[in-house]
Structure to design on (696 residues):
């Protein structure tokens, strides 16, 4: 089948439940692994619970459990949650395993043989109250560089600086809040400093790494790498260093080894085969931006030094915020994966997250209103509704039987666009993939509507039959393309189509003279999303009061009582409206507006302008000198599509003109913006032919 590919997600810590922030990574990785498998690649998706460290030992004791009992319970819960979100791992294992112990000791011994391990006495934080040395995460204090308070003893979450716990300003023990003393202890170190040149070449020559990540890592290398302390004092839960009684491997040495041991688990414990398979594979790690240092400096150096294959790619994503707030229990914005799936379908979260994920480490915002709008307007109304109306019409009018394809050019155009979707998946640009899928679904909806099969069947049943056969083929293509994101939905529609499990190789296979099954509604609109959130600051954002929709101009007439006004009839998809607009002086021939897809403030209170009803307002951009005015267009969208800004909710209440004017919408470099954020629909980001100016 060609080259072997190993894909991993970062290991969840066996110390608490998975939350929706974790799901960003697992969904991102799962979609990638599924897409590659659908393309016929030899892929294994691996992960494991990260089970070692002081927090495990401390929290197990608090619950009167052994660490082994404690991690076993979390393993079961994590596995259940991953399966609930349709995360299809080839191996989900644990770092507390004989395979992990074997490979950790193997790597350590190989490094030691090459004189890449040494010992020395160091000064550590010691808590006299708790009678224990304090590892990095059990000391907090002020960052010595940026002076931000309450940072852990290994890395500042604010500025990214790494340091030793003793470097913290005003350090304190997180167990008892007392100030720790400094005490010497003998520890093992890995000569990370010896790998500066190799790591520099590794990062510079890797064309797959995100540019912003490469620059960050190269700057760290340039500023000098310190040797790495790879041991910890007892009490500690982990693997003893060979020959030592009270010294353990630091969790960040044995945790990434969990990727290899998970592979060994897949290979039924064959250690030699696992090492061989690893070294013959292209390896992709998917991680959050908080663990870049470990995965792109420490881990590759350890692999280089011990004769193991280094990662081919490390994909870094940002954090998940909720309503523009950092996920936090104290702020009421923390939701476990279990909490969330009790109020919304797991595939809804899969869709929303992938629709916002690109190949960058930009944070994602889960805005509750935006989540609901995108699920209802895109996933349900656009994709799922097209699927159901097509199959149910075929059931009802043609005894579930298909004819032959009518519009071969349409199907060919869709298959061509499908290839772009696959390219987007394999380059981690899921936002683009979703946008293209929505375009294809819109093409199917438009074809269905334009042919009006409910009317056509009265005069030409054979033609109608072929039109529906085209639509069913578009459905088949759609469910193949959404499968990496919506595996359960795709599986259910495959059953309704009565086809085998579909892969990308099936995209261009015609479905003709075939009998489908009974259509059933799989996904339904969200009526209410009951998340117990605190009052959101976002409500203060003026844009959050707007409800902007795409509309098509169907007719333009002169106002009978006003020289500068036009009476514009629009189609908003679910309704028709009339708007009075002061555009006549700016269009020599106003009829050029007919057919344009424009943006309307749909929740503006209705008015009577010189005897004509105006049921909303069109957005128009004007140059700074006010001489040129042009309507804001959304040419790739369709009537009724929501116009929004990522992370800002949609207005529910009717607003007046003064409330609208509190918004500063403008054009900069042809982009339509509000507070630096570009307005968009699910299919496009809004632009204007005017380069600079304001929007009114």
């Amino acid at each position: 089948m060609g080259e072997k590919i190993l894909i991993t997600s970062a290991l969840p810590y066996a110390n608490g439940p998975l939350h929706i922030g974790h799901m960003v990574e697992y969904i991102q990785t799962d979609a990638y692994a599924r897409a590659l498998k659908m393309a016929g690649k030899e892929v294994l998706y691996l992960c494991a619970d990260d089970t070692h460290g002081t927090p495990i030992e401390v929290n197990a004791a608090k619950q009167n459990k052994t660490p082994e009992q404690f991690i076993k319970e979390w393993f079961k819960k994590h596995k259940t949650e991953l399966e609930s979100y349709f995360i299809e791992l080839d191996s989900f294992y644990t770092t507390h395993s004989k395979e992990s112990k074997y490979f950790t000791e193997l790597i350590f011994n190989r490094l030691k043989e090459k004189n890449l391990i040494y010992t020395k006495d160091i000064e550590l934080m010691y808590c006299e109250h708790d009678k224990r040395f304090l590892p990095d995460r059990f000391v907090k204090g002020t960052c010595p560089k940026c002076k931000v308070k309450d940072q852990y003893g290994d890395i500042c979450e604010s500025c990214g600086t790494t340091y030793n716990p003793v470097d913290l300003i005003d350090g304190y023990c997180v167990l008892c809040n007392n100030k720790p003393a400094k005490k010497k202890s003998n520890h093992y170190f890995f000569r990370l400093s010896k790998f500066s040149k190799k790591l520099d070449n590794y990062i510079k020559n890797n064309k797959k790494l995100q540019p912003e990540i490469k620059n960050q890592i190269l700057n760290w290398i340039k500023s000098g790498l310190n040797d790495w302390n790879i041991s910890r004092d007892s009490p500690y839960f982990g693997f003893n260093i060979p020959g030592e009684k009270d010294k353990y491997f630091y969790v960040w040495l044995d945790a990434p080894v969990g990727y290899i041991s998970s592979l060994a688990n897949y290979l039924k414990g064959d250690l030699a085969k696992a090492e061989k398979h690893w070294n013959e594979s292209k390896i992709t790690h998917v991680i959050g931006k908080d663990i870049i240092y470990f995965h792109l400096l420490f881990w590759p150096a350890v692999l280089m030094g011990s004769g193991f294959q280094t990662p081919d790619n490390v994909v870094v994503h940002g954090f998940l915020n909720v309503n523009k707030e950092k996920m936090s229990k104290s702020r009421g914005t923390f939701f476990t994966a279990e909490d969330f799936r009790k109020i919304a379908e797991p595939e809804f979260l899969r869709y929303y997250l992938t629709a916002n994920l690109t190949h960058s480490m930009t944070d994602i915002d889960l805005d509750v209103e935006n989540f609901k709008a995108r699920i209802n307007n895109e996933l349900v109304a656009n994709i799922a509704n097209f699927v159901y109306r097509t199959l149910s019409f075929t059931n009802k009018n043609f005894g579930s039987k298909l004819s032959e394809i009518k519009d071969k050019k349409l199907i060919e155009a869709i298959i061509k666009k499908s290839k772009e979707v696959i390219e987007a998946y394999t380059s981690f640009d899921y936002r683009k993939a979703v946008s293209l899928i929505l375009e294809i679904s819109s093409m199917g909806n438009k074809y269905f509507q334009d042919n009006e099969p409910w009317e056509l069947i009265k005069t030409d049943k054979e033609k109608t039959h072929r039109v529906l056969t085209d639509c069913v083929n578009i459905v088949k293509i759609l469910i193949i393309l959404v499968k990496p994101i919506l595996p359960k939905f795709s599986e259910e529609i495959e059953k309704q189509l009565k086809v085998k499990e579909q892969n990308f190789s099936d995209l261009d296979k015609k479905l003709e003279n075939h009998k489908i099954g009974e259509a059933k509604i799989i996904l339904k609109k969200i009526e209410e999303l009951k998340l117990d959130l605190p009052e959101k600051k976002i409500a203060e954002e003026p844009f959050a009061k707007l409800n902007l929709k795409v509309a098509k101009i169907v007719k333009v007439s002169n106002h009978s009582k006003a020289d500068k006004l036009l009476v514009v009839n629009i189609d908003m998809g679910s309704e028709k409206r009339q708007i009075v607009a002061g555009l006549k002086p700016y269009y020599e021939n106003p009829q050029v507006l007919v057919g344009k897809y424009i943006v309307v403030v749909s929740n503006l209170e209705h008015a009577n302008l010189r005897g004509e009803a105006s049921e909303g307002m069109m957005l128009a951009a004007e140059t700074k000198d006010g001489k040129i005015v042009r309507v804001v267009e959304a040419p790739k969208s369709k009537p009724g599509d929501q116009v929004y800004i990522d992370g800002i909710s949609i207005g529910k209440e009717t607003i007046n003109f003064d409330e609208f004017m509190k918004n500063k919408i403008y054009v900069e470099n042809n982009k339509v913006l509000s507070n630096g954020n570009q307005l968009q629909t699910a299919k496009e980001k809004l632009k204007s032919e005017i380069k600079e100016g304001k929007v009114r």
